[in-house]
Amino acid sequence: MTGTPPTAADQLSAVHDRRRWIALAIVMMASFMDLVDVTIVNVAIPSIQEHLGASFSAIQWVTAGYALAFAVGLITGGRLGDIYGRKRVFLIGIGGFTLASALCGLAVDPGMLVATRILQGATAALMVPQVLSIIHTSFPAHERGKVFGMFGAMVGLGAVSGPLLGALLTEWNLGGLEWRPIFLINLPVGVAGLLLGRRFIDESRSAQSLRLDLVGMALAALGLLMLLYPLTQGRESGWPLWGFVSMGLSLPMLALFVRYERFKARKDGSPLVELSLFKVRSFAGGIGVQLVFGVTCGIFFLVWTLWMQIGLGWSPLRAGTTGIPFSIAVSAAAGISVQQLVPRFGRKVLQTGALVMAGGVLLYLWEAHRYGTAIHSWQMALPLVVMGLGMGLIVAPLTDAVLADVPREHAGSASGLVNTTQQLGNALGLGLVSVAFFGVVDGSAPGRTVGAVFTQAFSHSLWWLVGCLLAVFLLMFALPNRRPATAEPVEASEAAANREPLPVG
User: Fold this and answer.
1) Model confidence over 180-200: pLDDT tens digits?
2) Which phi and psi angles does 239 have, rounded to 5°?
3) What are the CA-CA distances from residue 175 to residues 106, 109, 172, 178 (Å)?
4) Distance between CA atoms of residues 480 and 131, nearest Å
5) Residue 446, SS3 per DSSP
6) How far apart are CA 91 and CA 99, in angstroms?
7) Contact 298, 435 (CB under 8 A)
8) CA 491 to CA 160: how far, in whole Å?
9) pTM of the model
10) Rg of the Cα trace of the chain?
11) 1-15: pLDDT as tens digits
12) Which of 305, 391, 409 is nearest to 354 (CA)?
């Protein structure tokens, strides 16, 4: 017995269904490329320094420049998609990201690499915010849970695979290109995403009449640059007076930004940052948590790489594989935290995570002091697992906790600001490496070995992490103890899925 032949409407529906799943694969591929690019660079830093003759401040800018450009452009990137079309802006973003990756791989000096990394961050700020919007318009509400589950798994895979991929590509020295393949590997992925995206992604725009806040974006970028540039560059220049003046004037500049945002909100209701969100106690405290936690991670992952590869003389592959226990612990604790612990114990889980991570840092500090340059990878496993468990308890449920009391109509703006703050914290932490780590290197006694000096500097930096994690613990008291029953879960879950992860290696 034969069934009823499919109608034209059924065939059209099947084609549309196939198109949206292909579109999902495309945007997930683009996000994976961005996620890997965030984490892949750290392990290749010593190779970049050696073969380009880059100074330590230039190395800081290779990572901080990306984070800063991404953070400043993130909210505006999302709004550009709402106004001019998410497909169009996504394609511009992925095309620009691919071009910037090629230029990074072809960089002939540190200045060119820093400039192209900033371009990478700016184009990522166009590409990444469109991913959620494209998913939102392509899938009905009852399917998004499955989609965001897939997306969350991809986020974890990207964060874990980046350091290992960077280590392998650097170690293999493909074609004698040294570190360059860590950027050039984006080219085939980006080109495929660009071509397939043009064919399979459907265009969409916001139904609301929105306007850009380019003045607000310029004021924010200028204020942050006035703070971060002298912080990162000041050490190399001998901490000149102009650096302290610039950092001091960054505060009035950021105050001017806040004043303008209030004016913009009254004028047309389209400010870059919705300042009324900060009247929500849990959101304001959560933004503080995101910022300080971002600083913690920005400091740790850079100084950890410098210590292992320059101080201890380890190969990129050995350094990359040393971090595997940390990555596994983060992933395992994150799943347990969201699914089992937070629903039962609420905010206490995140605060426990901060204390556990601080305990892991103290254990690492003890081992670095005891074993010095004779430390082995297996001896690092225990403190890294403890740190990873602590981080996993925090990172997965944090966005949800920050957005728990935010009104539904401001959920999009709030989630964008959470992501932006995270990146700003990371950039600030990378800038503070000049003080936390290199300040010790510069002040070391003559005649000491590089290994001994870098071990002392690494230990000093770990004390900074302990202080930051204790601040995170205290700021978490502002978060809601349990998620309110009336809160809308969709926006928070989507924000968590699209959160740009902090580096895990």
Assistant:
1) 999 999 999 999 999 999 999
2) 50, 65
3) 14, 19, 9, 8
4) 29
5) coil
6) 12
7) no
8) 25
9) 0.84
10) 23
11) 455 555 544 444 555
12) 391
What are the residues whose beta carbons fall under 8 Å from the beta carbon of 200, sequence distance 6 or more? 19, 22, 23, 26
All residues at 6 or more sequence positions from 117 whose CB lies less than 8 Å from its CB, including other chains = 61, 62, 63, 65, 66, 100, 104
Q: How far is 503 from 277, CA to CA, in rounded Å?
A: 27
| DSSP symbol at 309 | I
Neighbour-count burial of 309, counting CB atoms closer than 10 A to its CB (0-12 exposed, 13-18 middle, 19+ buried): buried
The 10s digit of each residue's pLDDT in 395-430 is 878 887 888 888 766 666 777 788 788 889 988 999
Residue in the structure block whose two tokens are 């920050």: 402
In three-state secondary structure terms, 139 is coil
Half-sphere exposure of residue 175: CA atoms within 13 angstroms, side-chain side:
7
- Which pLDDT band, with edges at 50, 70 and 90, does 497 fall under? very low
Task: State the Cα–Cα distance between residues 371 and 358, nearest whole angstrom.
Answer: 20
Cβ 504 vs Cβ 159: under 8 Å: yes
Neighbours of 332 (CB within 10 A): 14
Which of 428, 442, 431, 433 has its CA nearest to residue 461? 433
> Which structure tokens are listed for 151?
């997306």
CA dihedral 270→90→187→56, nearest 10 degrees, is: 10
- d(CA 105, CA 253) in angstroms, rounded, equals 35
Q: Which amino acid is at 132?
A: L
Q: Comparing C-alpha atoms, which of 99, 157, 98, 90 is closest to residue 129?
A: 90
User: pLDDT for 420-458, tens place per residue?
Assistant: 888 899 889 999 999 999 999 988 888 889 999 999 999
> Is a pLDDT exceeding 90 seen at residue 265?
no
Torsion from C-alpha of 298, 300, 302, 306, nearest 10 degrees: 170
Contacts of 359 (CB under 8 A, 6+ apart): 386, 390
Task: Answer whether 70's CB lies under 8 Å from 425's CB.
Answer: no
Distance linking the first and last C-alpha atoms of the chain: 59
Locate 312 and state its tokens: 């201890």
Residue 138 near residue 484 (C-beta atoms within 8 A): no
> In sequence order, what DSSP letters do the residues of 147-203 get, joined into one string?
HHHHHHHHHHHHHHHHHHHHHHHHHHTGGG-TTTHHHHTHHHHHHHHHHHHHHHPPP
Q: How far apart, in whole angstroms, are the C-alpha atoms of residue 5 and residue 463?
A: 70
Opening angle at CA 100, ends 97 and 106, nearest 5: 145
In the prediction, which pLDDT does 149 show? Answer: 65
Q: How many CA atoms lie within 13 A of 442 on its CB side?
A: 14
Q: Which two tokens stand for residue 116?
A: 């192209």
Rounded to whole angstroms, what are the CA distances from 326 to 208, 361, 455?
44, 12, 20
How many angstroms separate the CA atoms of 445 and 454, rounded? 12
